[in-house]
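SAMPLE LOG
Freezer: B-3
Tube label: C17
Construct: single chain, 333 aa
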Amino acid sequence: MRVAVFDVHPFEEQLLQQSAKKLGHSLTLFRVKLDPSTAIMAKGFSVVASFAHDTVNATAIKILADNGVNLIALRSAGFNHVDLRAAQDNKIKVVRVPEYSPYSVAEHAVAMTLSLNRKLTKAFNRVRELNFSLDGLVGFDMHGKTVGVIGAGRIGKVSAQIFAGFGCKILVYDKKPDMKWASSIQAHYVELPDLLQRSDIISLHLPLVPETKHLIGAAEFKIMKQGVFLINTGRGALIDAKALIDSLKRNHVGAAGLDVYEEEENIFFHDLSEKGIQDDILARLLTFPNVLITSHQGFLTHEALSNIAETTMSNITDFEAGRTLVNEVVWTG
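STRUCTURE (predicted):
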């Protein structure tokens, strides 16, 4: 099939082309994001492949439908940027990549924790200036610390297992407890307030749905331990960023590792070194020495990118063949 691929990045281009060639698909690559102003570029294509920061709202979907698009293939697990009701109304199917590599994101969460704890960024910059002093670089042993994992899907479970390997005590909050798995790493399911109160490190691994938006806000920060480490590789809007800033200013949060940000759409994945940023909240977060921000790169491993490309093209093949779309997402009202 002929596929219009939007918001293509150099790190994925070769893998997408390789996977498409194996399954007989022809790709036309667009660097621009899919949104109402660019949707007309999909005219003549039956399928568009969309990335996580595209704006696939009702207006964009109507334009796609009017120009012959029947399938939106998401190159992401998240689908909160797509108006599923509009897709259904316009008879456009939507498929996603539900999982690619839980290890990529989980390992990134742990790497952020270790970097903040052992102050690796500060040490790296200091040594490059020939300053070999150890003052201000004291961290703590991970062994024996309590780690709270919020969301125990595949990524959350892998994160918990890695932290357990350091000898950490694991607390888990999830609405669907898996007691057999928890027993295998001696983890304990608890309610969210209990986890927040007892954890030295908190790692977020939840999808963004109405119930989880700003799950961590002012009230939650107040009951956390003094000096807590907060790591978010899930979705930016899980945390109320203004409340986080307030907690950092009061020295209540000891460190924050953020691979995602609520308003990242027009910032992350772009080189703004010559332009600067207009987002005052993100700019303030960047001033804290105990905040580590990465540009939504948790998924960025060769294995994960390969799986994303392969699953995306397989989804398109299933659609072309009229098979059941096992990775379809639908509007549920």
